[in-house]
Amino acid sequence: MKLIVGLGNPGEKYEKTRHNLGFEVLDKFLKDFESVSKTVWEESKKLKAQIVKIEWQPKKGKLQDVILAKPNTFMNESGLAISLLCSFYKISPEEVLIVHDEIDLPLGKTKIRFGGGTAGHKGVTSVMEKLGTDKFWRLRLGIGSTLKGKKIKHADKIVLGKFGRSETGKARELVKKGAKTLEEILEHGFETAMNKFNTR
Predict the structure, then answer these.
(1) CA distances from 165 to 51, 128, 146, 148, 178 (A)
(2) Active site residues
C-alpha cells in the first residue's frame, strides 16, 4: 500500500496559493484517474485529512492499493495527519510520497527525491518530526523565489501568494506535470519517474 499526500492549507482563503500546489496536483491526478462520481474526498476527523482510496493496476505487476490524502491541519502541522494515516493504515515512511511546493526550484521545475533535508519547508519539517525520520519520498514542485517578477526575501509572502498573470500558464502546466509524475511512479516506479521527470 502507498500513501500519497498533497501538502497545503485548508480553506478558501488559501485556494490557488503557491503553498497549495500539493492539493491541486492530487485533485488533478484523481480527476484524470477516476470518473467524476468517484472524485469525492471523504472527510476523516479522526485522521485529520480528506481521503480517497484507489486501486492502481499497472500494465505489468500487481494491483496496488493507494491512499490519497489532503491534511486538514495547516501546513505547519502536516506531520500530525500523516503520522495518524501511517499508524492507522500500517504504512511505513518508505511507502509515503509527499507532494509539495519548493521555493528553491524555478517555477515549473520538478524533482523527486528520497530523504534529505527540509530546505526550510515547514510542512516537510513537520512530517519529518512526526515520523521521526527523513526516509520518505517527496515530489517537489518548483514555485521560484519571486513574486510578480520581484525577488522577495520573506518566504511566507511567496508561498502564501498567488501566481501572477504571466505565471499562471506555467503553474497550470506544473499541476499537469505533477499529476503525470504520480502516474509514472505508480506505473513504473520511482527510479523510472526520476529519470523522466527530474529537471534542473
Answers:
(1) 32, 34, 13, 8, 21
(2) 19
CA-wise closest residue to 121 among 3, 8, 5, 2:
8
Q: Report residue 73 as a C-alpha cell.
A: 491541519
Local structure of residue 105 (DSSP, 8 states)? S
Angle of helix 168-188 relative to helix 190-197, nearest 10 degrees?
Answer: 150
Residue 7, CA atoms < 13 Å, CB-side half-sphere = 29
Q: What's the pLDDT tens digit per position in 141-155?
A: 998 876 555 665 666
Q: What DSSP line would sit under 19-48, residue for residue? A: GGHHHHHHHHHHHHHS-GGG-PPEEETTTT
At residue 159 the predicted structure's pLDDT band, cuts being 50, 70 and 90, is confident
Q: Which amino acid, one-letter code, is at 149?
A: G
| Residues 6 or more apart whose Cβ sits within 8 Å of residue 92 | 86
In terms of Cα–Cα distance, which of 121, 138, 144 is closest to 6? 138
